[in-house]
Amino acid sequence: MSIFPLAPLIILLLGLLSTALLGFGLYFVIGWYLGWITVVALIVTGIVMLVFSLLGRFIVLALLASPDENEPKPSRSREVEQIHRPDGTDIHVEFFGDRDAPPIIFTHGWSCNSTHWYYIKQALENEFRLILWDVPGTGKSGEVPDHDYSMENLATDLEAVLDLAGDKPAIIFGHSMGGMILLTFCRLFPQHLGTRVVGLGLVNTTFTNPVHTAPFTNILRALQKPLLEPILYLMIALSPIIWVQTWMSYLNGTSHISGRFSSFAGRPTMGQLDYVINRSARVSPSVLGRQMLGMMHYDATEVLKKIQIPTLIISANKDGATVVEASHYMHKEIENSELVVLAPSGHMSMMEQHQEFVEAVASFARRCTRSTYSSVN
Fold it and tell me: What is the pLDDT of residue 1?
């Protein structure tokens, strides 16, 4: 889901709304059954509330999205590897494509997992060696035992994933929080840039605390300490309850309404919208809260000018999480960079504009590959 700084608040509000919807529906139906309620309109209202609580997402999807033949699926590879990190975290990594092909490593964003690169896998696995990993706490990767979800800690995990590329120079891509992990990686491991890493892809991401580059940033900055951060700690403390409420929001479709307008700009397909909301609901609220806190303490402004390798910046003209000006700033600061703005597109541009997105990634990867291998030869 999108709207980084406000997403936890929206999750809480939708959870309360979903609880009220189900609770009042049960109250009216049980009251009618026990004779407390005799007004026909109330029992009808109760039945409608219960039906909507369980099946509302189908109605919402029909109203807000369109069907398509090529819908994203949670496809997994049979070629996998588990990385056991020193802090006890188990990282799940999957491989697609020929072992001898040029490697590209993809790092997903907040509330997502590696299966969000569905269209990339379809288009590029016959040309490149795709290495996809689930960031700790998401997908098939384990949670971090010491709860350290700082961008610095996740960047060290990315370095471990980079080892799986072997002796071949790799291109690394990151979406949203994944881009923040990449820029932190560039700060912590500058020795790898130009040697082990020959290309950088920053997708719908930012160079600093997302509160500072989100729409309505002045309001969000004022709310960060007194409201937004306490909500994150509440998510962590009440994680099991909020997780149940999140699934209720998924079933009744209220989270789909939020996701439609926060993550997409046009009219997404039914599969795309449901996929984004379903994968988000699978992530523990405690992990989401800790990752968000990690992002709020992130800043990579100073590293931008130090990046010398080819960099592709992909932005969206209607991104609800990061204003497009943030991408223009990174493009200006990173000397050897190019900027592609997809339109109309929201935060999930790798799905909403997947054809244009794949073309931009493929073209960039081919240029990096030609440059790297011609210099080697």
Answer: 45
